[in-house]
Inverse folding.
């Protein structure tokens, strides 16, 4: 269970303050699929960064399975994230000196899997996202959509309890995007994984039972099929 | 007028060859608005990189206003590009140590405009794309869609004859995307600028009179309203 209490984030830049999150109170149950829509600059990525512990909020709490992650020490937060979360960044953040399969197996090596096992699981996930023939390519030898699919495979390969996805199909054509969303829905149903998906694409919201709307740092429930 | 003759591009990676462009013959008239659709990895970005001279083709010619740009020396190609072209990259390529307005005024300074003029024109273009309040932000202090709009402003600010746009609205919500496409259409009608737009979004193709389809390195005409 994910719960936020009065979550705020303010950026200060040359004396100007931007209130990116203005007090978010949100609850997400285990195994839920939730999408977040909202205009450019409305605070969606900021929210995901605070929910996942990648960034620290200015005020408020983020409680995941009764642990307030905003109070964890850096090391404990990193371990908690590695064990429980996958993150698909808006612009992928692949490691340029590692090839596709090495990028995907890295989170498994961090969790202590042996090389052979990690390589097998990484290859399997890259095949699932349609990249069987690109495993040895480095990020600068991949198309935009291929790089995004490597980032998706990396986030899913450890079968994390929670996956934060920031526009996971933004660089994909409709057909490839649908195949990714079908994979996500399958993992949600099979492993009861929670998915929180930021998107601009109304077709993506059809895969989630709840739709939240972000507007200038304020989050409202838009639709809840329960 | 843009014309290609048997344009080919082959990438070699660890002995494996990828034929990204398999012989493209294309003609685009001055002032045309053309969109290019196609699945992830089909060769769209590779085509734009070769058309604009950012990358060299393996074979074939790219002729723009009777000049074969594939035979130009590097300095002449850079000057030709600075004078005649704007490029909206798929992942923006903003200069991290320059803020938004500095990124946008740079192509003007390269063309010899004085600081005061360049600053004025850059500010005007940033206002056009809805970033009046983000001019002093550095790229790492912008949201994904804001960064994309800075990249759009930079490509348009010199009013180039030809603009190559690689998924110009990929990181934008529907409303912001429409306002950008309206700006592009206005510039096309007012200044007779040519736009070649790669996109995954079928709504974007409604702004162009020609739609091309890329599939595994082969380009076909999909629709031509002439
Ligand atoms: N530097 C490179 N080395 C090897 N292969 C490459 C390189 N750059 C691109 N490729 C391959 O060439 C093919 C075409 O890539 P391109 O970037 O043109 O695709 P695209 O149509 O723009 O795709 P997307 O919609 O995902 O951005 C891809 O399959 C990609 O793996
Ligand atoms: N490091 C920063 N410093 C200053 N302002 C920032 C910083 N990061 C983000 N912002 C501002 O906070 C606001 C929210 O940004 P955020 O990245 O969360 O938007 P978003 O909803 O993800 O937008 P997009 O759909 O364009 O990706 C933006 O207006 C942005 O300018
Ligand atoms: Mg964002
Ligand atoms: Mg591309």
């Amino acid at each position: 269970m994910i719960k936020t209490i009065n979550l705020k984030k303010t950026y200060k830049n040359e004396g100007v303050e931007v209130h990116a999150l203005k007090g978010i109170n949100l609850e997400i149950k285990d195994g839920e699929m939730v999408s977040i829509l909202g205009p450019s600059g409305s605070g969606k990525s900021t929210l995901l960064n605070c929910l996942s512990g990648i960034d620290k909020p200015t005020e408020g709490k983020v409680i995941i399975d009764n642990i307030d992650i905003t109070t964890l020490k850096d090391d404990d937060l990193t371990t908690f994230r590695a064990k429980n979360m996958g993150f698909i960044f808006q612009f992928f953040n692949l490691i340029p000196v590692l090839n596709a399969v090495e990028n995907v197996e890295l989170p498994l090596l961090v969790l202590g899997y042996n090389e052979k096992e990690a390589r097998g699981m990484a290859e399997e996930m890259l095949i699932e996202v349609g990249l069987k023939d690109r495993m040895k390519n480095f990020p600068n030898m991949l198309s935009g959509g291929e790089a995004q699919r490597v980032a998706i495979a990396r986030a899913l390969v450890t079968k994390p309890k929670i996956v934060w996805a920031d526009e996971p199909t933004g660089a994909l054509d409709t057909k490839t995007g649908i195949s990714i969303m079908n994979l996500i829905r399958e993992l949600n149903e099979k492993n009861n994984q929670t998915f929180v998906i930021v998107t601009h694409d109304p077709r993506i919201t059809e895969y989630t039972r709840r739709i939240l709307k972000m507007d200038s740092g304020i989050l409202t429930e838009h639709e809840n099929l329960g």
Notes: Chain B has a mean pLDDT of 97. The longest strand of chain B covers residues 16-28. Chain B has one domain: 29-60+72-224. The interface with chain A takes residues 11, 13-14, 16, 37-41, 44-45, 90-91, 134, 136-137, 141, 143-146, 148-149, 166-167, 170-177, 200, 202 of chain B (CB under 8 Å).
